[in-house]
Design goal:
132 residues; alpha+beta; Lipocalin; 8-stranded antiparallel β-barrel; globular; Lipocalin-like domain-containing protein; Lipocalin-like
Length: 132
């Protein structure tokens, strides 16, 4: 009986390792980013918050030519962006040569969830929708 239990745990462990490696091997399809992503909400420790009135019309538009346009609290920024598939993040470089890294938590046709590599908001997940 003890042998069967050990074998069951071993098989479960092997299955988990295979599952985790399969997930990590999946690449982000860059074409799914070519969209205007409208700010929808913020998540902090699984609690969701609405954007402020100033942020109501915020968005990021990732273009196919590697440029972006973003609107944040009525300020428009432009620049270039690069997808790092190995690290699972987008690197945005604005026209002033300032960079910001945004880790992709989740990406689908309708939703993009980012976690920005900025000390003040590192634990915040920013939720964008492709349709208003």
């Amino acid at each position: 009986m003890e042998y069967k239990i050990k074998m069951a745990f071993a098989l479960i462990g092997i299955g988990l390792i295979f599952f985790i490696n399969t997930i990590n091997a999946q690449k982000i399809d860059k074409t799914n980013l070519f969209e205007i992503w409208h700010l929808n909400s913020y998540k902090i420790k699984s609690k969701e918050y609405s954007p402020s009135k100033k942020e109501k019309n915020d968005y990021i538009h990732f273009k196919e030519d590697g440029t972006f346009v973003s609107k944040s609290e009525n300020t428009i920024e432009t620049g270039t962006w690069i997808l790092n598939n190995n690290g699972g993040y987008i690197l945005m470089i604005d026209d002033n040569n300032e960079t910001i890294k945004a880790y992709i938590v989740s990406l689908s046709f309708e939703n993009l969830i980012l976690r920005f590599d900025v000390a003040e908001i590192k634990e915040v997940e920013v939720v964008y929708n492709s349709h208003l």
